[in-house]
Design brief:
This protein is of the alpha/beta class. It has eight helices and nine strands. It has a five-stranded mixed β-sheet with strand order 2-1-3-6-7, with helices on both faces. The chain has a four-stranded antiparallel β-sheet with strand order 4-5-9-8. Helix 1 runs parallel beside helix 7. The two termini are 18 Å apart. The N terminus and C terminus are likely disordered.
Length: 208
């Protein structure tokens, strides 16, 4: 995720990621897709606060998320992932293939989404390892790498703000790469390259 300058004109973009970061992300997603075991469905956790899950629209949002993910993906969330075990994110994260975060919309129609401390930590734990997507209520799924991020206070329990780019397009290369990493068929474009350092940190700022 990026934190670019706050010039209002910078919001009128298709992505906040630099081209090199987009390429690294696509390459990382391709390698994830090539290495993932196909005999079992991908497992994606939908992270949402209790207030969001109690919203009358929750079931429709879940259905929309499921419809935008590749077919056969197993959807997990707090109500079905922790029914028979205590909340232990580190333990669950090792079983996941991806994460979708559902934040509080700043206002109806806004591209700004707010997340509490727990959601922020969940996102941070997977952002450099697996496909992480923001669910925009009126935009669909957006890779977190394409969003502008800002850490909010308080210092002892920091929260997170994600801003979706104004000219976001659903046919973006980053989204297709993320969805492919969660799909069930190989990409078939080229032979996967050996894992390199950027796979561990595909979103890192390139060296100057």
């Amino acid at each position: 995720m990026q934190t670019p300058p706050t010039d209002p004109l910078d919001l009128d973009v298709e992505t906040f990621a630099r081209p090199v970061q987009q390429r690294r992300f696509a390459s990382a997603m391709e390698q994830i897709a090539a290495s993932r075991r196909r005999e079992s469905p991908a497992r994606v956790f939908v992270s949402a606060a209790p207030r969001t899950m109690n919203n009358p629209k929750w079931d429709s949002w879940l259905k929309q998320i499921e419809g935008e993910l590749p077919g056969g993906v197993e959807i997990l969330h707090y109500r079905n992932a922790f029914t028979d075990r205590p909340y232990d994110w580190n333990d669950l994260a090792g079983e996941l293939d991806g994460l979708v975060v559902v934040g509080k919309q700043k206002r109806p129609g806004s591209r700004v989404y707010l997340f509490g401390p727990i959601a922020r930590l969940e996102l941070r734990s997977l952002i450099a390892k697996k496909p992480v997507l923001l669910f925009g209520h009126n935009l669909g799924l957006i890779p977190a790498i394409d969003c502008k991020s800002q850490v909010l206070g308080p210092a002892d329990a920091p929260r997170l703000k994600l801003i979706a780019p104004k000219r976001w397009k659903r046919d973006s290369e980053t989204l297709q790469a993320a969805l492919h990493a969660l799909g069930s068929t190989p990409m078939g474009r080229e032979e996967p390259r050996p894992a390199t350092a950027h796979l561990a940190h595909p979103f890192a700022t390139p060296p100057r």
